[in-house]
Each structure stands twice: as structure tokens, then as C-alpha cells.
Amino acid sequence: GAGVSQTPSNKVTEKGKYVELRCDPISGHTALYWYRQSLGQGPEFLIYFQGTGAADDSGLPNDRFFAVRPEGSVSTLKIQRTERGDSAVYLCASSSHRTGEQFFGPGTRLTVL
Amino acid sequence: AQSVTQLDSHVSVSEGTPVLLRCNYSSSYSPSLFWYVQHPNKGLQLLLKYTSAATLVKGINGFEAEFKKSETSFHLTKPSAHMSDAAEYFCVVSDAMNRDDKIIFGKGTRLHILP
Asked: At a CB cut-off of 8 Å and minimum separation 6, what does B56 contact?
């Protein structure tokens, strides 16, 4: 079956612009996670959804970052007023339950010039 | 609060020799522990996980890890390295029983396989 997909695979934007990153989880997975991976680092947790609600958004670095999952499936990570320090690979993962195996997408590489 | 430390940022072994990737963790409760592998230009893939059952966990591709509570370690091993094992490996800790638990990734260990 289809795995987790993320679009776009690459996004180049200018400082100050707004971007949206999309994640399509595995069908039926109720848990969805966003991570950010900077060069040479492990993935850093951003936010976790259980169904439509953000069960834990404590990893979002500041209020420029926001994520939604309105129908409990597709999720969008939104970054306002992008900064060069936001450049990273943004990873999405889904799982069938909170402690289950997380299946990762290929990531979106965001470059802020 | 949880934390995880991968003791080596790079490990090089010759093909056919054993692999040891070290991971130490700290956790207030009973942790769940995972190892993920990330090949270049590919998504993260689960190798194995420990969730309070058997302390010796067998995973895919011949990898295994042993949970040692007394040493707070969860080292990843493989008896004989293959060239295809060259990748980045991440140790992950999670405290599922803790309402405030976080999923914490280590900084990763890059495994190099020498011909």
C-alpha cells in the first residue's frame, strides 16, 4: 500500500515569505507527527496530532509555526515570515496509535534564502 | 524528562565484521526505545523497538539490540556488516506512560562500511 507522502519534495523561498508543507499519512493512521531535521542532527519533534486535534504542540519553536489536520487525515504545516534558520528537512510520520511504529515520509527540504 | 545520547557520531567497520552502535538513555518512567535507519535520500525506517517485553530485541536486516536497565543502554549490534548497511542510525526514546512524554531522537551515528 501507499506510504506517507509529502509535498513538495523541495521548497525554496525568500526570507519573510509564507510556506505550506503538506503530509498525506497512511490511510487509517490516527496519529500524525511533524519533525524538523537540520543538517547533521537527528529529527526534532514539532507537533503530534491524534485525529483532528493537536495533542502536543510543545515542539513548535515559536508562533510563526502552525499545523492543521482538519479532517483527521492530511496535515499542513504552515510557516509564516520564514527566516533563514527555518531551513531544514521537515519530516512527517504517521502511526496507527500513540506508541506504535512511526512510518516516515521522504521529507520536504525547505531552503530559505 | 527523557534524553538519549548516541556516543559516536561516526563508526567505520570493515565488511563482514561486527557492528556496534552505542546508545544511552535517561527516562523517568519505563521507556520505549527504538532504532531507526536513514539511507541517503530515503525516509526513516524502523529497525527494531523495545516496549517492556523481551530485553533482547531482534529487528530487520540482522540487527538486534539489548535493553540493559542497569546500564541505561540500548546498543545496536549486527554480527556481520554488509555494504548496504552504510547509513545514518538514530536511537529514539519515548515514555508512553508519561502524559508529558516526548519522542526524543538522538543526534545519529553515521555507519561507514569499508570494503
From this structure: B64, B65, B66, B67
